[in-house]
Amino acid sequence: MNNLAARLRAMESRTGSVGDCSKIANYRASRHNLFRRRSTRRRISNAQRLADLEDFINRRVQASDNNFFERITQPLDVDEPADDELLTIRNLTLNADQKQLEALYVEALYTITHKVGKEECESRESLYKYVRSAFQGDSQLHNTLMEKAKQNKPPVVLLNVLLLEAKDLIAKDINGFSDPFTMMGVVPGKREIAEVIESNEDEGVKSSRNQKRDSVLHRFGGSFRRKVGKKGSDSGTIPAKLIKASSVQRKTLNPQWNERFQFIVDDVQTDRFHMDIWDHDDEEQSVMDAVSSLNQITGGFKGLGRFFKEVAQSARADSGESTDDFLGCISMNLSDIPLDGIEQWFPLQPRSEKSKVSGSVKLKLWLSTREERLGAEEDDLLDVKEHIELMRQFALYEIRLSGAPVRLWDGVFPDKANTILRQHAVQGDLTEVHTAMCRWLAFHSMIPIDISFSLLAKTLQNIQDKWQPMTLDKAEEDMLTASFSSFDTYCKRSFAEHRRRFHPSKRNAAEEFASLVRCMRALRDSQFYQKYLPYKRPFHAHLESLIIKSAEDFFDETVESVQHEDPCKELLKLLGVINGSCSRFQQYANVIREVGRIDYCQLTLSTWDRMLNEYLTSEMMSERKTDLRSQMKISANQDPPNEDDLVDLIRIHMAFVELRNYRLANRVRGKDESEWYGIFNRGIKNFLELAKEKALARISLSCQLDVPICTSSNDMRHSSSHIDVCHIVEQMTVCWDRIDVSELTLRIDYTKDLVDILCDIVVTYTKKIFSNLEAEGFTGDLQVFVPSPLLQLLCSTINNCEQVRRSLMINEKLHLDDLAIAYERAGHGAPTWKAAVEQRLEQTDATICAEIDRVVGLLTSRLKPQMKKHVFHLAWSPTAHPVEDSLKPLTDMIDIELSAVHKNLLHKNFLRVMSAQVGIVVHLLKECVDENPGMEPAFYHRLFEAWHVLVDFFHAGGKGLSMEVLETCPEHVALVRTLSLNQTSTQQLIEKYYKDLLKQQAMAEHNVNNEVSECKYGILNVRAYYNANSQTLVLDVIGAKQVIPLDANGLSDPFVVIRLVPKYRYPTQVVSKTRVVSKTLNPIFDETFEFHIPPKLPPCAMLHFTVMDHDYLRSNDFAGEAFLELADVPGFGVAGGNTLRQFNLILIQPIQNNKEIIDVLTSRREDKDALEFLRSITTAY
């Protein structure tokens, strides 16, 4: 390892690095030692150190030019509001009066102590415990207040009955209807039965009025009575403690009353409610008078209320009494009434077997209380105020308990709190409207501690849904009116500050803003608001004015906050704030469009655009030493340019472009800015020149400070310099995308300049790092063994180049297509400049790829001698030896080479290494074939099989080179064709030769028939059929047309040579010829030939026609040839029949494709069939 460190130090010394590079070299040398530690913690630590060093180098390179590129593209220096700490209860003090808080504490305990109604809930002890926690009371205080609550007089329990309607009652009158009315009361439960005072004898004498009254009482007494004294004696009927009657509904079986009654309850657990329905027949006395008389009887009994334990359901003992007027009754225990009350249809029950009843009655029953505290001042709103404070106290406790910010509380109370609140509402006789109002007022009072608008919106909607006119008292409506007015003011203030208050960086900001707008809309649209807080303008106009006012205030505040001595810097900050706010439009626009049907973006941008124009006008007329326009002109025209001023100018330009894009997107017409763009255009030219200078200086420094990049989890090799180059390219393209040159032709010129600059930067960097690689010893005379540090440096270098090459794929970022379309529309003609720009980028890409391929070639070619030995071993190993085994030395060597670089290279570069190895193997196999011509086909077949094994090896199951790349590689295609031909037998080659010519003839015929091309060499007309009986092929050579002229007189002396081919299939058949027809291009032969051949056709059997030009003094000239496949001749195979069929054969001349077959056959000098074939075609041609 020490030797490795020494070699690395020597490599660093040759790079000529300066400054801190010596420290970097030491770090490189020690890096391998650090990563070989066994401790995982130490490996992570060293990886972190390497990452920190890389970051340090990159920041140092960027700082070398005062972060020139980063300053241009960085976000403008805008003081974004931080996500302020959301208020929590831990940060708050309640600041409530201690005496009032204790009174509320007592009220909560009092409510639990005297809870009423049927409810399955927690025990009283758990409710006491919850209240103690909510009020943060210690044990002593809790016990003291508990005693105080118990000392207070218990509340009076009230039963509330709402008699709604009945249906399907039985008809008692002759007209088929009834006149129903109800009598109801609370029947006492466990009471001591008092002795009945002896009745006065004089009571036996009754007036007619008393008799009528008793008839009513007599009927009702059957239900509200208890027999007293001995069995069988009826001492009297005891009425309920308080009996009330409803009105009489005339002539109906479905009466509707909607009347409310209230009864005092002595014992909720034992008392019962009873109600009878009767048909009213007494015309002279009202029901109410009768009931009043009935209730007066209670004065004549001692402790009468104690006797009403239950309602008697049996019929009267007196069978003489009539029950014809009874319509039904209901009875239920008060302990069965739920806390929230009950509203339902109750089926009517009979009193005895003789009673005939039907139908049901709809009632609403609920319990409430009335406190009778001594010395308490009368306050009609006391229960409401207590409920509000109690709900607020529980809310504060729940938020404090959760530890979450107030804004995130969802308003859901636990079961214990809900139980206490429901009990308090019931005992205070608070309706649903009251509880909804109390909930709203409680949450509204928590606005100062940042309660969420989402919760307020839901609560507001709830009270608006439940409120109806006359449901609240005047004082209660005044409380609600005051809260709505206060909340409306709060909403206006919040909306005016919505950019700060609902900034996207804050949690739930979007949801909160949406709830704010919905609150404003719901408040204005509510019936209550319209009745008690009338307004002048509709909501649409109100919201529109708020948007405009908010935009104006925001702009004025921003101008005030960005004041600076330099007008350019002030304008830059102002535009930065405005653009930043525009980028957040959608945070607010969607909700306002949905709720208010207002285009928030257009309205706000129009306001800002107007105010910005006013600002610019005032700045141009400023009395400063240098006004805005003059300062910008100076920044654009300075020579040499001032870097800071030029950067500010370009950033102002990009800010204007961004603002203009926002205006265009929202259909806002802006002011003509041609004067400004003239200044900017001059500044852009200076910027490009300065950017090139800065970029080249950065590259030089980055290459000097280059350090490797590698982590323990990833062996991919890079160095820090490529990050700087890619960063420069990215920064410049991003900057260019945000720059807008006003003149089209000028933008095109600047685009070409930009591309030239970027290409020069990338090529310069590529040359530098390859020069550094060569300085480390990676040259053309590489040894077989490459030291690991040098190999890693190679991987890092070509990976850097590949990454930089990818960064230059900027065609889309330059918007060349859009520019070309605009160029043509402007009437400038074809955009030839576009092809030049694309060609420049392609050339740079090709240059980088060529450099990478050159270095990869140096790496792979060093093993070529060894690979050649392995190929020789493969070719000359015994045939019995499997090809895979013969290839193993070669594949093992290639696999070791690939494994050494696989993890260190980008996949693209790894494929480049594989491609280079493929090229070497292909070359060696081709060389082996060329050096060994005329061998047996088995020799080439072995090489052919070996190559397919190698193809699978390089494909590596899809992880290596793709089959498409391998199959389209020209060298691969040529090798496969060469091996395929050489491994093929002579006869198969001859057949392939003729088949290829037959295909050529068929293609020529197709082109002539489809008028794609003309008949170039003429047409031969023949007729043929096969006589199966005599096994004779009959051929008529009719003539030829358009034979090519081969004599000096422009004519020919054509004749036709006829052969059956392949020759080895028909060795006994002689060559036939027609007569010579002199001086013509359209000869007529009319000659017949017969060939005796068997009916079974061998493969590729055909007639070969050769048209020759007869020459008396010299050798005959070749005019063309044609082929007739015997399978197409009638009488053979599928052709069928023995009738002469005419064939018009297109004459062709052989093309160069067949030369490869001829060459292979020529190499087989000892093959008789090959020699005979070559001799035959030589004679023919």
Automatic annotation (TrEMBL):
Ranges where the C2 domain occurs: 137-308, 1016-1139
InterPro entries according to UniProt: C2_dom, C2_domain_sf, Munc13_1, Munc13_dom-2, UNC-13_domain
One example of a Gene Ontology biological process annotation: exocytosis
UniProt keyword list: Cytoplasm, Endosome, Exocytosis
Compartment(s) of residence: Cytoplasm; Late endosome
GO cellular component, one term: secretory vesicle
Family: Belongs to the unc-13 family.
PANTHER family linked: BAI1-ASSOCIATED PROTEIN 3, UNC-13-4A, ISOFORM B
Protein name: Mammalian uncoordinated 13 and C2 calcium-dependent membrane targeting domain containing protein
Organism: Trichostrongylus colubriformis
